[in-house]
Design brief:
eight-stranded parallel barrel, 3 domains, Double Stranded RNA Binding Domain, alpha/beta, binds pyruvic acid, TIM Barrel, binds acetyl coenzyme *A, three-stranded antiparallel β-sheet
């Protein structure tokens, strides 16, 4: 069966930029456009030329893309011709192959927001679309508030949308602008416009996620006949975001009936870059990746429960809806108090520790994990601490060094300029190869400001580890999370430290204590021990 073409329209650089807190630079826009082009979307909406300097600059030096670069704007304003509307002129002057303009299709908005008659609005839509078409560009019309309009005055809404089609719009895009439509509204809306004379092959769908239905609404629109789907990477967008293309693309490619019926410009090979694309966007925006994101989240294929891990080891399809590799993701089997021996053996295997089924060490490790989690530890994220614990139980964790004692002080005092400043200082005594050393460190950052007691402690701890010095020199602490939790009956502090080294490895460790500094210290020691064992620094250390 030949597949029908379904077009993907990305608006990360336009509606995505309407996300609170998101502001792309011109260079970042170029980087995102390149990523989208490599991924295989059909249209890249680059922004609104003339609306702000960044968008104008982006179009002045527009990237050469296989995808159709599209400039966004609005229909001409009343009282002037399309040719004489300066806002529309700036959009046209960007010189893109495709131009998308938003126009009102809800009678209430025409009257309340534009303050013009319903007829005048339809004339403005027709004249604006015709102006784009006459200039030889592909015209797209974003039918704003289409689904709300259908409820208020269906005849008018359909007439406004149809006017754009009749004026030559290649696509009439039905927008759930306020994000309140539900799948049955969207199905009915697409069908109504098809019945009104706009073929599905000219209908697009643009949804917002205000009821968490943006992806479902897009899928329903396709099932009802729409052939263009709009969305953004990682679901960026105004308010709660737009339909998430990072979810929609794999769903359309891998799930029935869409997979058999349609093809998009995203090849199976490009689909394997999806996780990378999603992460790269987070990096550009300095956002923490959403762990539970569908398909691309770090937890999307994490099998925590013992029953799941046991079945996964026999056949991954028992608890996975797709093969994670299809979207560039990977299966993980974290350790926690939900785990059984199957999780454990799988996890140990991934660390290069093959332990036979039934080995008594497995039960000991599980008991220790469950006991410690009851006391406040959490190993499902702190996998490096789990490895240290497992190695101890298996007798393969070297005693690299022994901490004899440590002390941390925090002082607040006036500096030479009579400003109040804080200063943290740590003293650590460690024994390496029978030799005791005392190290002292302050916590001053590059700008001379206090980086806090944990920073001082980590510097003192790593200052003189004898022959292990070269292995710890490239450790960087990248994140530090503190949580007050209940360890048994007492409230305790759990600290998770994320570390990174020069080889690009990242790892997380956990410490628990009634005292935040002590909990941090435990996590720091685990971080160093994990790094030493992974570097193979144990030669000569006591096993
Ligand atoms: C649903 C969407 O998300 S559409 C995309 C929305 N995106 C943006 O608004 C981001 C970019 N926007 C901007 O930078 C600015 O709003 C600009 C440059 C476009 C316009 O700025 P200003 O001229 O200062 O107008 P302002 O933003 O205050 O108001 C918008 C004007 O456009 C009018 N307008 C709104 N929609 C349309 C439309 N589809 N067609 C014609 N005029 C419209 C409004 O009635 C209002 O006119 P008024 O000032 O006479 O009341
Ligand atoms: C055009 C647009 O972004 C909307 O109506 O949501």
């Amino acid at each position: 069966m030949t597949k029908e073409r379904l077009y993907l329209y990305d608006t990360t650089l336009r509606d995505g930029q309407q996300t609170q807190g998101v502001q792309f630079s011109t260079d970042e826009k170029h980087a995102v456009a390149r990523m989208l082009d490599d991924l295989g979307v059909d249209y890249i909406e680059g922004g609104w030329p003339g609306a702000n300097p960044t968008d104008s600059e982006f179009f002045e030096d527009a990237p050469k893309t296989r995808a159709r670069l599209t400039a966004f704007g609005m229909t001409k304003r009343a009282g002037r011709s399309a040719e004489n509307d300066d806002v529309l002129a700036a959009v046209m002057n960007a010189g893109t192959q495709a131009v998308c303009i938003v126009g009102k299709t809800h009678d209430f908005h025409v009257e309340a927001a534009l303050g013009i008659t319903l007829e005048e609005n339809i004339k403005n839509i027709s004249a604006s679309v015709a102006h784009i078409v006459v200039s030889g560009r592909e015209a797209l019309f974003d039918a704003e508030h289409f689904f709300d309009g259908l409820k208020s005055n269906p005849e008018y809404t359909l007439c406004a949308a149809k006017a754009a089609y009749d004026a030559g719009a290649r696509w009439v895009v039905l927008c759930d602008t306020n994000g309140g439509a539900l799948p049955h509204d969207v199905r009915a809306g697409v069908k109504a416009l098809i019945e009104a004379g706009v073929p599905g092959s000219h209908i697009g769908i643009h949804t917002h996620n205000d009821t968490e239905n943006a992806v479902a609404n897009s899928l329903v629109a396709v099932a009802a006949g729409a052939r263009q789907v709009q969305g953004t990477l990682n679901g960026l967008g105004e308010r709660c975001g737009n339909a998430n293309l990072t979810t929609l693309i794999p769903t359309l490619a891998l799930k029935e009936p869409y997979a058999s019926q349609f093809e998009t410009g995203v090849t199976a090979e490009a689909l394997t870059s999806l996780l990378r694309v999603s992460r790269r966007l987070d990096e550009i925006l300095n956002r923490v990746p959403q762990k539970q994101a569908a398909y691309v989240g770090v937890s999307a294929f994490a099998h925590k429960a013992g029953l799941h891990a046991s079945a996964i080891a026999k056949d991954p399809s028992t608890y996975e809806h797709i093969d994670p590799a299809q979207v560039g993701n990977a299966r993980i089997v974290p350790m926690s108090n939900q785990a059984g021996q199957s999780n454990l053996r799988e996890r140990l295997g991934a660390m290069g520790l093959e332990v036979a089924k039934g080995d008594p060490a497995l039960a000991r490790i599980l008991d220790r994990v469950k006991e410690r989690e009851a006391a406040g530890y959490s190993y499902d994220t702190a996998q490096a601490s789990f490895e240290v614990l497992a190695r101890e139980e298996l007798g393969v964790m070297p005693d690299f060094f022994e901490v004899k004692r440590y002390r941390v002080t925090v002082e607040r005092r006036r500096n030479k300029r009579n400003e109040m400043v804080s200063l943290s200082e740590a003293v650590v005594v460690v024994k390496v190869d029978g030799q005791k050393t005392l190290s002292v460190s302050e916590s001053l950052g590059p700008d001379g400001s206090d980086q806090g007691p944990v920073h001082a402690l980590s510097r003192a701890l790593m200052k003189d580890l004898g022959r292990y010095a070269e292995h710890v020199a490239d450790i960087r602490l990248t994140d530090f999370k503190v949580r007050i939790t209940n360890g048994g009956t007492e409230a305790v502090t759990r600290v998770i430290i994320d570390s990174e080294d020069g080889q690009g490895r990242t790892w997380s460790t956990v410490g628990v204590s009634a005292n935040i500094v002590d909990a941090s210290f435990d996590a720091l020691v685990d971080a160093i021990r994990w790094k030493l064992v992974r570097d193979g620094a144990q030669d000569g250390a006591t096993l």
